[in-house]
Amino acid sequence: MKPICKNIIGVIGITLAVSAMVACKKSFFDGTPKGQYTTDTYFKTPAEVQAATAAMYGAPWFNFNCTYSMSIGDVYSGNSTGDANAAMIQFQNMNVTQSNEYLYKGWASLYSVVGQANAILMNLANNPNALSLDAATVNTAMGECYFMRAAAYFYLVRNYGAVPIVTDTNNFMVNYQLPRHIVSDVYKFIINDLKQAETKLPNKGATPGRVSAGAAKAMMAKVYLTMDDFANAKAKAWELISNESTYGYGLMDSFADLFYTRNNNNKESIWALQWTASNADGAYGTGNVTQAYCAAYGQELTGGTDGWGSFKPSLDLQRDSIAGDQRRKPTYMRANDYYPELLQARGGYTYPSCKSKTGANVKKYVVGNYEDNAATGGAYSMSTGINTYMIRYADVLLTYVEAVMGNNTSTNDPIAIAQFLRVRTRAGLGGIPVNNITADDLLRERRLEFAFEGQYWYDILRLPRDKALERLSKTERGMFEGWCGDGAVVSNKISVTASMLLFPVPQSEIDIDPKLADAPVAYY
């Protein structure tokens, strides 16, 4: 496996200092460029602005996407077993320590996003070349920055609770002893950023893959839902559902088609991380590494030196499957499943029975070898070009259902049922249930729709506290004795407490900034 520490200033093709990011220093803001606010480094052309904001769709999120997102969203939640190394096993057993490597890399990655957004916003605010930058270019760039900063803080506050809010990057370089801010103020900050993004971004992005005002609305719906502000969550989701042609969103006809590289930036993709496959060592950090961790053990599927089977579908997830669900096969492989799109040169790939102690391996984001992807940029060891979905339109539909349900245990609202059935019908499951949706129905639907997209943990967090603890404590995290998914199940169930619903701030960050260990303070 290649080392994660790389200076990736050159890989995005941006020469401005604003794009520099070094991922391996101690401070969680070392990803923020220094000294960029001079007349030599201000943006001078729209192309420079657009190149800088393009960088925010990939590289700063690299370590978030690499192992952090799925370790929390799927392993910690019980969707997946993760036994590749000690760091991942801590997520598997829900005993993540402050020194966990993935925990730190995720924290640093998210604050790199914050730092990049702050740097661009400050450059634009102080730019002496305003006359050469048209208003649309500036507004769109600022909207993208507000969106990305809000998204990063949304992950931070859900995972760590109170966290530092930083907007003045230059000030941080002088005084990096910053406190954490209270959770309610972090959420207020997120909503304010998203309102700015909603106002400044166009309804439809001019460039495929760029976020729009619709993406800001979708994110706001999720944030409001997490805050139990069901009225605003419902309203924001409905703005998109009732105006699909305005914002250009809709469900793909086939669930399986979502996870082909050729279908990047499709109509269901509201916000996705953008990756480019590359085998060049200097470009490490531009490709999606998910296949490396998810592909069944061995190099057969990838044609590279990866394919570690680190993330595997848990027994618990498999037991929650529904007969006839057309999402199962594109989500995870079971014995004798045939995939014509993989290893095409030899006629396709049939998954054998002896690859996993859970009897299955992940299929989602596994796109195959170079030849399978030659038309879309190829695939290399630890590098494919498939986007990472962060918000899909199916999520908006189910967010609306959840907002309508609110604190109730079920809903028979016909509009909510109609949105639920759109997702369920695409999965080949028809109209069941027809007249009523329970909270358990909805959670199961979300689990099966978004497995291995890093979402299930956050779905559980939105449950009432006692229900969340009960569900997590009943989750089977064990595996079979044998590598063929055979033998007895070695059970692993954990008695989950409320303190396990938040992650600790990495110790290396507290060592540098002791105020992170203090009680949080108000920001506003």
Keywords for this structure?
524 residues; mainly alpha; Serine Threonine Protein Phosphatase 5, Tetratricopeptide repeat; two-stranded antiparallel sheet; globular
- The helicity comes to 40-55%
Q: Strand order, biggest sheet?
A: 1-3
Report the mean per-residue pLDDT as an integer. 90
Biggest sheet architecture? 2 strands, antiparallel
Total strand count, please?
Answer: 14
Q: What class would the helix/strand composition place it in?
A: mainly alpha
- Spans of at least 5 consecutive residues with low confidence: 1-26, 31-39
Termini Cα gap: 44 Å
What name does the CATH topology of one domain carry? Serine Threonine Protein Phosphatase 5, Tetratricopeptide repeat
Oligomer: single chain
Query: Please, how many helices?
Result: 19
* CATH level-1 class of one domain: Mainly Alpha
Shape: globular
β-strand percent reads 5-15%
